[in-house]
Structure formats: C-alpha cells, structure tokens
Specification:
Shape: rod-shaped
Structural class: alpha+beta
Strand content: 15-25%
Distance between the termini: 11 Å
Oligomer: single chain
Number of helices: 11
Number of strands: 16
Length: 441
C-alpha cells in the first residue's frame, strides 16, 4: 500500500510540474490588496495564465450589466489564499487560486459561489477602490460595496437570493477582522442588494427550476422513515427537501440518494458532489439533500426523468436486512403441516362418504350406535381440511411477505464504493498551492 501511495504522489507531482512549465509565468510583487476573505496575500507571487473557465466567468459578469463602465484589469492565477484585487505599478489585477475555486465549488455544490467571488473582486475595480493602507472603517465600506456589486450581478445572471450568499456562507466563517466585516453583516448586505436589484428587472431571470417527481416506491419501503419528499431540478443541481417526524428525534440516521439508472449514480465521479446524505447523521426536522449533477458532467436531460431517483432515511439501528433463514423455514413448516392436515382431512372425508353410501344411505332410521361414529369422522375431516387450508394460506402469505422483504432490502441498499481503496487528490481550501491526498479504504 505504501508503494501505491508513493507512486501516486510522485505521479501527481510530475503532472503539476509539467503543467506549471507549460504555462507562461511572471513574478508579481504585491504590497497591498483586497482579498475576498480574511487573509494576507504573499508579497512575491508567481502569476500564471488564467484558465478558460475563469476568463469565461469574468466575461459573463462584465456582460451582465452593460450600463457599468467596464474596468480594465489583468486576470491571473497564482498562489494566493483565495482571490484578491490589487494594483501593481499602475496596472490593476485580479489574482485567484485555481485550487481554492475547485474546493469552493465542491463545498458549496454550486457555481454561484465562484461567480460571486469573481464579481466581488471586479466590484473593487468598478468602484476604483484604492489598495494602500486603510482605516478599518474604509476597508469595511470597500468590502461591502464589492459585495453589493456582486449581489446585483448574480441577481441579473439568475441566482436566487440564498444562492447569492453561497460563497460567504461556505467560506467566510471566521468572523470579522480589521479588513472584513462580520459574515452576517456581509450576508445581510448581499440579500438587501439582491432584493433591490430584482425589483429593477422586468421578469425573473432565476434558473429554470422545475418540480422533479421521485420514485414513490421508496416511500413504501418498510425501513424508510419518511413517506414523502419534495424535489426540484435546475440547470446544475437537484434539491430534495424532506421532513423527519419528531418521534424520531432521539435517533441517528443513514440517509442516501439512489438512482434507478445504472449509468447515473450520484457521487460516482466526483466525491463530495452530494450534500445532506451520510451515515450517523443527527436528527433534524428539516433536511435538504443537494446533488450537483453538473459537477459530475451529467446533462439535465439525463437526470430529469420522473421516477428516476429514490430517497431513503434509515434508523442506523434498523437498516435494511433480508428475512432470516429460520423464519423462512418456519413458514415452510407451517405450509407443510397445513398440507398434511388437509390431505388427512380429505382422506377421512372420502372414507366417511364411502361408508355412508354403502351402509346407511338406504337404511331408515339409521342405527345411531353405528351411524354416529361415521358422522363424527365426516365432521372431523372437514375441520382438518379447513385447518390445513388455513395453515397453507397463512404460511404462503408469510413466506411471500418475507421474500418481498428480501427484494426490498436488496433494492434499498445505498450506493457503496466497489474498490478497496480510492486515491482522491483534492485542493486544500486553506492554502492555494496545497494538495491534500485522501485515501479511502
């Protein structure tokens, strides 16, 4: 295992080195700048060419409001903690970390967080903010103005209000600082700006959200603690809202999202692309599951079909399991006893009828001392037949129910990774140039 891990690390380092050598680089000396969140940029930076995705996002942001004077700046990727706007020798820059953007998308499960980050930095240039030493009051004002600009941009691009604060909610959780207001203050400013901007738009430009019909058979599963859920789909993710009854308040849960299509398995390509699922989760009356199918490179047409997805909420102490062999044997025994009783009753009934027909049918009156025993045998045989048929029916019903339970248990098991281990190189949010190597056994 050590050999495999060492080889993976060596290979990944070589790929990073080759990629860095392939891009034109330049050194930048940064004295001051407005970083997206709390953090001090390095004074010496190695600036790389911006990715195609970053350039497209910036172009989309600049085109969202043609009435705004387009600021001139240079866009570069570099080893900064997150993203920053700055000015060097009279040239304005937006410098960002590629690894930070990928980590931000993975944690927030939406591209809106990245769009907000770029729009925030562009806002500094739109308002021509200075990047020298500032008072805390001036720093706060500049950051809130940039947040204001970003919120209005996202509103025009189609983000909903809660999506506009995704970047702040996910990343900026450390509280305020000398340069940045408290996250709650920033979120309030963003929501207010979004509401004001939405009133100026002729029609809503929000992402086309539609109801998604779930496979209702999952709610009939005997282990599923919920009997309904509401789901909707937009251009990048599926959101499922469920309510867990208060009577389960003292339990822990296993929650999973499953597809009926073999080719569409949530989280099969991008670990971390599903939020809200997991094992040993504490009780919450309202639960939201979010799957960003776009992160896994699925198209909306591939995942929008009604009845494709199932949602399960299990008590971790009572998860799906097939019926025991002992219980199935008991059902078979009941059926066997019932069959034997019914056959015994049929034989006795036939014998009683034959005896009556040959000896007593034409005799009137019947000699009671001889007739009564054969009549009792006839009645007793009917009881045996009734008991036997009832036992066969009961055993059959219980066996069918247990076989159905087996089938339900097999269908309800959540997706599990098939390999013994997986190597997942992922960028570190805290350090733009850091690589975290996760090995899952």
């Amino acid at each position: 295992m050590r050999t495999v891990t060492s080889f993976a690390l060596l290979l990944f380092s070589i790929l990073l080195a080759i990629n860095a050598e392939a891009q034109p680089t330049k050194k930048l000396t940064v004295l001051n700048g407005c970083s997206f969140a709390n953090g001090t940029p390095s004074s010496e930076l190695i600036a790389l060419e911006a990715s195609k995705e970053a350039r497209q996002l910036v172009d989309e942001i600049l085109a969202s409001n043609p009435t705004v004077i387009q600021p001139k700046f240079t866009l570069n990727a570099s080893n900064v903690p997150n993203a920053m706007a700055t000015e060097i020798n009279g040239v304005r820059y937006i410098i960002y970390s590629e690894s930070f953007l990928e980590a931000l998308k993975k944690q927030s499960l939406t591209i809106w967080s990245v769009k907000f980050l770029f729009a925030h930095e562009i806002g500094h240039h739109v308002y021509k903010h200075g990047f020298g030493k500032k008072t805390t009051e001036q720093s706060y004002q500049d950051e809130l103005e940039a947040d204001d600009f970003a919120a209005r941009v996202l509103c025009r691009l189609g983000a909903l209000k809660f999506e506009s604060v995704a970047a702040i909610d996910i990343f900026d959780k450390d509280g305020g600082s000398d340069t940045h207001p408290d996250p709650e203050v920033r979120a309030f400013r963003v929501e207010k700006a979004w509401e004001e901007e939405s009133k100026t738009l002729p029609t809503s430009t929000a992402l086309d959200k539609k109801q998604l019909i779930l496979d209702k058979t999952c709610f009939k599963n005997p282990w599923n603690l919920i009997n309904e859920a509401k789901a909707e789909i937009d251009g990048e993710k599926i959101t499922i809202n469920i309510q867990i009854p208060p009577k389960y308040g003292n339990r822990k849960f296993r929650i999973c999202l499953k597809s009926n299509e073999n080719a569409v398995i949530p989280e099969s390509r991008t670990p971390g692309s599903v939020k809200g699922t997991g094992y040993g989760l504490p009780y919450s009356p309202n639960l939201t599951i979010v799957w960003n199918y776009k992160m896994e490179r699925f198209l909306r047409d591939q995942v929008k079909e009604p009845g494709m997805f199932k949602v399960y909420v299990y008590d971790i102490l009572n998860q799906p399991k097939p019926a025991s062999s002992r219980s199935k044997i008991l059902c078979g025994t009941i059926m066997g006893v019932g069959t034997g009783a019914a056959i015994y009753g049929l034989v006795g009934l036939k014998d009683a009828k034959n005896t009556y027909g040959s000896e007593y049918k034409d005799v009137t009156p019947h000699p009671q001392n001889l007739y009564n025993p054969i009549n009792n045998k006839y009645i007793r045989s009917q009881y045996f037949i009734g008991f036997g048929l009832g036992a066969v029916a009961t055993g059959s019903y219980l066996l069918i129910k247990k076989l159905k339970r087996d089938k339900q248990a097999k269908k309800s098991i959540c997706y599990q990774r098939e390999s013994n281990f997986e190597i997942d190189p992922s960028p570190s949010l805290a350090n733009s140039m850091g690589i975290r190597l996760n090995i899952r056994f």
